[in-house]
# Entry
Amino acid sequence: MDKFEVLKKYFGYDSFREGQELLIDSVLAGRDVLGIMPTGAGKSICYQVPALLLPGITLVISPLISLMKDQVQALKQAGIAAAYINSSLTEGQIAKALEYGAQGRYKIIYVAPERLETYGFLQFAGRVELSMVTVDEAHCISQWGQDFRPSYLKIVEFVRRLPERPILSAFTATATGAVKEDIACVLGLRDPQVLVTGFDRKNLFFAVETPGKKDEYLLRYAREHERESGIVYCATRKNVEAVYELLSSRGMPVTKYHAGLENEERQANQEDFIYDRKPVMVATNAFGMGIDKSDIRYVLHYNMPQSMENYYQEAGRAGRDGEPSECVLLYSPQDVIINRFLLESKEPAAGASSEDLAAMGERDNRRLQVMVNYCMTRNCLREYILRYFGEYGSGACGNCGNCRQEFQEADVTKEAKAVAECVLEMRQRYGINVVAGTLAGEDTAKLREYGVSAYHAYGRLKGWSLGGVREVITQMLTEGFLGQTQDKYALLKVTAKTRELTEGEAKLILKRPKRDGAGQQEESGSSKGGKRRKSDILNSRGLELFDRLRELRTEIAREEGVPPYMIFSDKTLVDMCVKQPFDRGEMLEVSGVGENKYARYGQRFLERIKSLTGGTKEKTYFGELGEATIGETGGPGRSGGRTKTRNGPKAEFSLTKEQAENFPYKGSCLLTELAAALSELRDPDRMKKVSGADIFRFLTTEGYISEKRADGYWKKIISPKGAKEGLRMGLRVSAKGTEYEDVYYDERAQRMIVGHFVEEKQEG
# Structure
């Protein structure tokens, strides 16, 4: 087999993602590689495919037991012989695994770094053919990484003691330039093929919220996402326990994870989460590295993390399957105090010199300030993240809380000059809090101790709140009009750009969220962009089919005792909904369905799809994909345009005047009910159905209705124009008994919508 045959047979994919083929080809050519790829980009494929093509065993060094178990379980589901060796096994089990490995029964063996120095494992490694040693989560080997593990240094000595040096491959999702160089140097990679595919994950929606009461926000968010899997990260064990009690007391399916729990409880709770028995996990940063659960739809940070590396890695656990997911950070100034305390209480790195410890302390404080600036910025959040990792985007992604928020601009150049002059007058000896307090004219014991009232700058911005002055300073730091020292206290310093501001060559514009007539700040987001759902591809019929297939997946997962996502990912289920396979050949065209997966599960999914569709392919997705899914191209977007269905092209939905006059109007109905009634009037062989999404798109385009993000979810807003036409809000109750608002359409609204489709036909 070649690499493409391996990819299709075992993993069910027709082509490689960005960067995968280059790294695979390099390994197959005998070259060391270093891959820095975002979470969900398919790093595992980069060593698993060559592992199946190389003659010997591939040894994968992984930091967490849970990660090893997940990976091995997933490989077995795909029909690949693999094993893991770690402290969760008995000595007898380890001996048996090594024996089978020596017999050539395994192509891939996962091992903890601590195991490398044991006599038995060294004996095993010395007598078998090791084609490749792969270092997963490779940033753990760098003292400058966010998760340094001394045990990773054992890898170097292990490789040195092997009879013949194998190919070395290393992978991580988060590494700055310094960490990247450190990985290559410490591991001793020889002329490695280094690939950085970029850190941007377009399916993730980033937002920073500053709610007055975090608990209330969290409850609203959790209720809105009650059917979805998510992680809530907290800074301390105490916060984990409090948040867990808050959610569980409301009857939500939640579990918890932190280092203070017994090992058995942590393991049981993790399995509850992985197996969807309790789809919401509340945890410290002790949870998550290596968690391969692909269908996590949101990651919510109850507290601000200590660094951008930590935040991006934790947030990156959402949407590993490529489906739309949210990463929301709840910020308050108290988060800064908590994190400073945690950093000061951190145990020093073993064997580090005093100079190294001082440098690490400065690094930690610098990273913390980066996170504070992230929480305060009004610019694009995605761009902020990418710039930190050395990438540059377009400046505005259109898919983050700031890009969707409407801001009003305020010229604060005068105030910025006052800040710069204050910093100079105080001889650049103080940080943000003292400078802001001085300018705002604060009277605190600390400021009195410093004697700040003697400065000319004292009270110069007395009409401003302390938070407002801090906002100006933060923006100056963001745009380079001020700098900070790289030490514990982060003192404010002028820069080369400061003079541009003070001499009138530059301006400072502050963006603030727009406020409504009552002076209330608008919630993050805007009516632009669609609601964040399981898939931006599927229409209402497609989502219905998706839910039924997900139920089947859960049923099979319980029978086999494996996590549901290991049967098929959400992304694969979405592709099934789009393509609606009716036989083996069509099922194998679905992304993520390989031969082994088909043999195990394919027939049951085929039968379920046939029963749900009546054996007739329907349009289950929005129009941007055209009709390529059901035609000869075999999948959405493959042809790049619209192609015919199996029965030829169908006309767009329309009505005659007679049909409109005789339509069974009701006093009131929901959008799905209206769409279903309209579709009943068409000739199914000649005309496409109309979906609720199709109608909703018409209503938003014409200004009858809009969507706005509020309290963490998308809320429908009826315009005065829509209200005049008979649209109104009303309460509904979900299957779980949760009340929520939805739009009802009175007879006047129904007639307006029906008339739209008559007019469309006449104009055509």
